[in-house]
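step=encode ok
step=design start
structure_in=
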């Protein structure tokens, strides 16, 4: 669990069902004989144990010989802004290498003389969340290498329920830093499960092992509470924002604000003179039982002005988030005169072109929003881009 827990970890056993024992904690209990080997760790400070200790510090405390640290987007602190270059640095005299700096071409040389690569990253179960693809690239770079890769597994922050899966399996022509392999956009899998799939899919000759977590069932959409939340990246301020993230992330390709850098991030959408009452009325016709919609004016410190928008609270944790996201975007586009498409520049995509298509994995997706609403909805459902639940190439470990 990424969140904080006030109960003393030292007084808990591995069989205590009140805790999620992460793969990192279970590794510590194994008393492995390779602690003195040269170890690299791919992680950031947001992944913690039940005593609120990060995995990196937990490994250091237990005398693992960490010689290099590797970080994904947002850096070691998980606080750097979305899509921004993160500089290399040191942490407790250990060299920290920002893998996001290499975009899609992580050089093999940075893993030279690393005997073990331990991986513990947040995973929110969304295909275009970039941490997954940093792991994917590392697995591919280490093909035929002697380095042993160990995934210190932890629950999917967004959902662990195997029924919660939606949207298309990626077309090979739409691979990017946001999507490198054919998995659903919203999925319930852990990084351990995904890493095994990536190995098998790409027929990689790698030494791969997964240290499982304990005490998390898959019979609920999610068991994480907002009060126990540690942000896996700057904009995911609580569980609600994590749940709504795959839908509201589509608005990055528009001029609509999603309240980044505020406590409402990825829970609110807005813009000058947005006709909230009219839009909410249309949304309630389609999603009244899934989402609560409220008009809310917030102060955006980045613009130093108050902006009217719509605040969303999920009611149903099992409904199709990608269908909702596309319908939400379509309804706002149709009812907001100031709506515009725009590029979304990042370090990995400097011109920010085709951002919506890269997110959704569908060529010229932007053009589909010109359909009439009923036809658009029919297309989403009948073209089977949404709710492809009957097929998964990924074998669950739990």
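sequence_out=
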């Amino acid at each position: 669990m990424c969140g904080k827990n006030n109960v003393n970890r030292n007084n808990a056993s591995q069989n205590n069902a009140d805790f999620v024992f992460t793969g990192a904690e279970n590794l510590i209990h194994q008393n492995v004989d390779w602690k003195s080997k040269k170890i690299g760790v791919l992680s950031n400070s947001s992944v913690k144990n039940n005593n609120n200790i990060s995995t990196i510090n937990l490994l250091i405390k237990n005398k693992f010989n960490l010689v290099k640290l590797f970080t994904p987007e947002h850096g070691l602190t998980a606080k750097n802004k979305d899509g921004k270059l993160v500089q290399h640095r040191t942490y407790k005299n250990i060299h920290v290498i920002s893998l996001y700096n290499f975009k899609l071409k992580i050089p093999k040389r940075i893993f030279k003389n690393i005997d073990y690569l331990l991986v513990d990253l947040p995973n929110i179960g969304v295909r275009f969340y970039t941490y997954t693809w940093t792991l994917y690239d590392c697995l591919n770079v280490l093909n035929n290498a002697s380095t042993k890769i160990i995934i210190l597994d932890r629950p999917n922050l967004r959902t662990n329920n195997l029924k919660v899966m939606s949207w298309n399996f990626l077309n090979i022509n739409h691979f990017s830093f946001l999507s490198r392999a054919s998995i659903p956009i919203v999925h319930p899998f852990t990084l351990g499960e995904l890493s095994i799939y990536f190995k098998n899919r790409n027929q990689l000759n790698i030494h791969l092992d997964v240290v499982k977590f304990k005490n998390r069932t898959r019979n609920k959409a999610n068991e994480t509470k907002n009060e126990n939340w540690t942000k896996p990246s700057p904009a995911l301020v609580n569980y609600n924002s994590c749940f709504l993230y795959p839908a509201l992330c589509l608005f990055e390709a528009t001029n609509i604000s999603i309240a980044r850098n505020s406590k409402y991030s990825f829970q609110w959408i807005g813009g000058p003179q947005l006709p909230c009452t009219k839009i909410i009325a249309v949304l309630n016709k389609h999603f009244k039982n899934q989402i609560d919609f409220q008009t809310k004016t917030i102060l955006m410190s980045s613009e130093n002005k108050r902006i009217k928008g719509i605040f969303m609270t999920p009611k149903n944790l099992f409904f199709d988030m990608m269908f909702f996201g596309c319908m939400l975007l379509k309804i706002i586009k149709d009812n907001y005169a100031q709506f515009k498409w725009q590029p979304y520049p990042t370090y990995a995509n400097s011109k920010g072109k085709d951002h919506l298509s890269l997110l959704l994995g569908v060529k010229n997706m932007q053009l589909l929003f010109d359909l009439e609403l009923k036809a658009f909805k029919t297309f989403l459902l009948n073209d089977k881009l949404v709710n492809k639940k009957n097929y998964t190439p990924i074998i669950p470990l739990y």
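step=design ok
step=annotate ok -> The chain has two domains: 9-211, 232-382.
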